[in-house]
Amino acid sequence: MATAETSIQEPDYVNSPPTLQVRDLVVSFKVENDFPRAVDGISFDLYPNEVLGIVGESGSGKSVTSLAIMRLIPDPPGKIAEGSIKLRGQELLDISYEEMRDVRGNEIAMIFQEPMTALNPVFTVGMQVMETIRTHENVSKDEARKRAIEMLTRVGIPDAAKRLKEYPHQFSGGMRQRAMIAMALVCHPKILIADEPTTALDVTTQAQILDLMLELKQKEEGASIILITHDLAVVAETCHRVVVMYGGKVQEVATVEKLFARPLHPYTKGLLASLPSTHEKKDRLYTIPGNVPSILQMPEGCRFCTRCSEVIDRCHTEEPKLHDIGNGRKVRCHLLEEGING
Ligand SMILES: Nc1ncnc2c1ncn2[C@@H]1O[C@H](COP(=O)(O)OP(=O)(O)O)[C@@H](O)[C@H]1O
Ligand code: SF4
Ligand SMILES: [Mg+2]
User: Fold this and answer.
1) Which of 80, 110, 119, 161 has the fewest Cβ atoms surrounding its Cβ within 10 A?
2) Same domain (yes/no): 209, 296
């Protein structure tokens, strides 16, 4: 974990039930006369006090998964076609739009990959942050303004008192992202979904924002974070467990320690090999050959078979199962059955 004070509350996988349970979730998008699946039957749990990383290259289905949890999939063309998303046992896919609006913000807040998803262009940034505070807490306008300035300052917006009066379009991309992060954090959510929260920011600000997220999580009893990122170094620093996604499917689930010490899925091995090493000088960084296939052109069999360096014949025709290999670790690869891996 990043700092000493952020490592006090740890998840208890044995005695506490998960806060969030995602089961067999399928999200499809209408493309001409087809309904390809951007997320294809994913399941995972999020425990109280946990920081769960979701990693995978661009196009793996990470953002679609988080938008589905928030019930914000654009419909049409998108649709949650199958599955279940339970928050402390309550099925989120069955509740009304109004009830879901209460869940959003009160219980689950999201830092979007695209800041304008959360910011309204016709209101000042200050008004939006203050409104968010006042929706959740019974405080005066002056108190809300004070808190808004405080939070905007903490996410690194200089001269926050003045910038409060500006509109989102007067903010740069990085500043907009910070404002959106502030809005998500002032809600004190039980679950914070952070979708690539720091990509538009410089390294120092990235570290500050991650620390701030962890610090606020610690203050909220039982709160957890889903951190979506393609940066495995950030995962190593901040997360307890990791879900590796590719082609809209979960490919591997493991604790951070186990994943980094001994990745089992060839895709995870590829992602780790692409990481710059701190102790070993590499002339050129490894990159996984090829690209993530489009949802319209997913290969038969294993989704990763077009790029896998360990591919065997059956990978091209047979979809591998997600094998549970004990202690919460899961791997979707035929090599486990072949006795070559595992
Ligand atoms: N509105 C949409 N219409 C059609 N396809 C979409 C839409 N949104 C996402 N997708 C597709 O779903 C797949 C997963 O996307 P996404 O979840 O954004 O990936 P990630 O966040 O892992 O980069 C991609 O192939 C993307 O093109
Ligand atoms: S099932 Fe086959 S193609 Fe897929 S990851 Fe395993 S070895 Fe590679
Ligand atoms: Mg994304």
Assistant:
1) 161
2) no
Is 174 among the domain residues?
yes
Gap from CA of 40 to ligand 2 centroid (Å): 17
Q: Model pTM? A: 0.93
Q: State whether 169 and 111 are in the same domain.
A: no
Is residue 154 located within the same domain as residue 214? no
Residue 258 lies in a domain: no
> Which ligand lies nearest the alpha carbon of 111?
3
If one residue of 35, 40, 62, 64 were mutated to test the ligand 1 pocket, choosing by the most ligand atoms within 8 A of its CB, it would be: 64
Residues 171 and 189 placed together within one structural domain of the fold? no
Q: Which of 166, 182, 198 is where one domain is finished?
A: 182
Contact 124, 163 (CB under 8 A): no
Ligand 2 centroid–CA 334 distance in Å is 6
- Is 274 part of any domain? yes
Residues 110 and 148 in one domain: no
The domain of 285 spans 267-338
CB 211 within 8 A of CB 2: yes
Number of the ligand closest to the Cα of 79: 1
Residues 164/125, Cβ–Cβ less than 8 Å:
yes
> From CA 3, how far away is CA 8, in angstroms rounded?
10
Among the atoms of ligand 1, which is closest to the Cα of residue 64? 17
The closest of 266, 182, 260, 194 to 225, measured between CA atoms, is 194
Is the C-beta atom of 266 inside 6 A of ligand 2?
A: yes
Domains contained in the chain, number:
3
What tens-digit pLDDT sequence spans the chain (342 residues)? 444 444 468 999 989 999 999 999 999 999 999 999 999 999 999 999 999 999 999 999 999 999 999 999 999 999 999 999 999 999 999 999 999 999 997 899 999 888 887 899 999 999 999 999 998 889 999 999 999 999 999 999 999 999 999 999 999 988 998 999 999 999 889 999 999 988 778 888 888 889 989 998 888 889 999 999 988 989 999 999 999 999 999 999 999 999 999 999 999 999 999 888 766 666 678 899 999 999 999 999 999 999 999 999 999 999 999 999 998 899 999 999 887 654
